[in-house]
Specification:
Blueprint lengths: L14 E3 L3 H19 L7 H24 L6 H4 L3 H10 L13 H25 L6 H31 L3 H7 L1 E3 L11 H20 L5 H16 L1
Antiparallel strand pairs: 1-2
Amino acid sequence: ARAPENLMNTETRSSTLVWDLPVRLFHWLLVLCFAGAWLTAESEHWRLVHVTLGYTMAALVAFRIVWGLLGTRYARFSSFVRGPSAVLAYLRSLSGPKPEHHTGHNPAGALAIVGLLALIAVTTATGWAAYSEIAGDWLEEVHEVAANGLLGLVIIHLIGVAVGSWVHRENLVRSMLTGRKPVPPVEGIRRGWATVAALMLAGVLGFWWVQWQSAPADTGAQMTRASHEEHEDHD
């Protein structure tokens, strides 16, 4: 929802809850998983970690889709997904004297979010198929291309966050940590849904524990051998 400009001056601003805890936890878990999966992508030594983080990302996207339909006001896709005309109008306004301000995701940011969710789905699906040897080597190529596209979109998203923070004079990174933004209380949400977030975190940590416990007993030795082989190949 767009906050009226006359309500956005410094006299009426207040710290208002906008992002519920499940949205924030989803965001930062996804950041952690993507960074970890990217860093372990080329190493047999960390293959189990890479696969586990990839599966986690897939589950997080599935949760976000459900939460985007049933969640709080600004978590719902219906509150921020807009057409191309809205995206263009928002981008044009950034260079004007009164840039459009949106309490939730702006139309351009929403486009990036939808793209990120779609690319994560493609990346994790092709990664699973390649890991399971369902098809030929071409799936590995598709997986790599999708992952590179995902990295590019993440960079664009970060640039957008920096620009939005500067134009609107609000720290968007901090708001995704605290859940609060300097908007009138009428624009906020009533509760943070900490129970849902706790269940999500428990599910992720539980899955990681199961993955670790189900790993082969000699995983450590295999990982050490793989590390030595990689080192020899580089030499």
